[in-house]
TrEMBL record:
<dbReference type="InterPro" id="IPR015414">
    <property type="entry name" value="TMEM64"/>
</dbReference>
<feature type="transmembrane region" description="Helical">
    <location>
        <begin position="6"/>
        <end position="26"/>
    </location>
</feature>
<dbReference type="Pfam" id="PF09335">
    <property type="entry name" value="VTT_dom"/>
</dbReference>
<keyword id="KW-1003">Cell membrane</keyword>
<dbReference type="InterPro" id="IPR032816">
    <property type="entry name" value="VTT_dom"/>
</dbReference>
<feature type="transmembrane region" description="Helical">
    <location>
        <begin position="38"/>
        <end position="59"/>
    </location>
</feature>
<keyword id="KW-0472">Membrane</keyword>
<feature type="domain" description="VTT">
    <location>
        <begin position="61"/>
        <end position="177"/>
    </location>
</feature>
<feature type="transmembrane region" description="Helical">
    <location>
        <begin position="154"/>
        <end position="174"/>
    </location>
</feature>
<keyword id="KW-1133">Transmembrane helix</keyword>
<protein>
    <recommendedName>
        <fullName>TVP38/TMEM64 family membrane protein</fullName>
    </recommendedName>
</protein>
<keyword id="KW-0812">Transmembrane</keyword>
<dbReference type="GO" id="GO:0005886">
    <property type="term" value="C:plasma membrane"/>
</dbReference>
<comment type="similarity">
    <text>Belongs to the TVP38/TMEM64 family.</text>
</comment>
<feature type="transmembrane region" description="Helical">
    <location>
        <begin position="79"/>
        <end position="101"/>
    </location>
</feature>
<feature type="transmembrane region" description="Helical">
    <location>
        <begin position="186"/>
        <end position="204"/>
    </location>
</feature>
């Protein structure tokens, strides 16, 4: 990789870290504050919310805050739809940026464990992406960029992203509605969705993720 490319990546990473710090330490937006800003727009609120969700990965604004704000602003039904559309749009944007950034990176020779993981991710694009979307410990935007860098097929990535987003969209939408209205049925529904998601993640990790790790370890030997 050329010196110019290295400088480009250093500048990019510095900007990412700076924006993340500003979001966490300076701006400190809450779901309620985001909801208030959205509802000021009146009839344009859904359109602007989706646009904000699409651009959110560029400033590393927390996806959970945007999702919860969607539930607070639009209720349990429309909230799910807008969260899903906005989240998928943002994920596609981050995926595209990952591809652009990774074009030169993968023109260089990559060997060893990184190359094996890249091939595994490309070969099992849908399954691997879905698992990463469902795992709550993985950053949503990081998964998007990694999939773009690894050249996971767009169709597999999109399908896995929509399916992986759906439980969270439902959960956050109901939770936001419950916090706004004080209706316990929404809060209980949200907790039930997240509990079910946790069970699914545990099952997937045991059946899929651990097998993938064993396969990679076998390839390295």
């Amino acid at each position: 990789m050329s010196t110019k490319s290295i400088i480009k990546y250093v500048v990019f990473l510095t900007a990412v870290v700076t924006i993340a710090w500003l979001n966490a330490e300076v701006f400190r937006f809450s779901p309620q504050a985001v909801r208030d800003e959205i509802l000021i727009l009146g009839a344009w609120a859904p359109v602007m919310y989706i646009a904000a969700c699409m651009l959110r990965p560029l400033i590393l604004f927390p996806a959970s805050i945007m999702s919860l704000a969607g539930g607070l602003a639009f209720g349990p039904a429309a909230g799910v739809i807008y969260i899903l559309i906005g989240g998928t749009s943002g994920a596609l944007l981050a995926y595209g940026l990952g591809r652009l950034l990774g074009k030169e990176l993968f023109q260089t020779k990559i060997k060893g464990r990184m190359e094996i993981w890249r091939r595994k991710l490309e070969a099992e694009g849908f399954r691997a992406t879905l698992l990463m979307r469902l795992l709550p410990v993985l950053n949503f935007d990081l998964v998007s960029y990694v999939c773009g860098l690894s050249r996971v097929r767009l169709s597999s990535y999109t399908a896995a992203t929509v399916i992986g987003l759906l439980p969270g969209a439902i959960g956050y939408s109901f939770l936001g509605s419950g916090l706004l209205t004080g209706e316990w049925r929404y809060i209980v529904s949200a907790v039930s969705v997240f509990a079910a998601l946790l069970i699914v993640v545990v099952i997937l990790r045991k059946k899929g993720y651990e097998n993938n790790i064993n396969n990679v370890n076998g390839d390295l030997q």
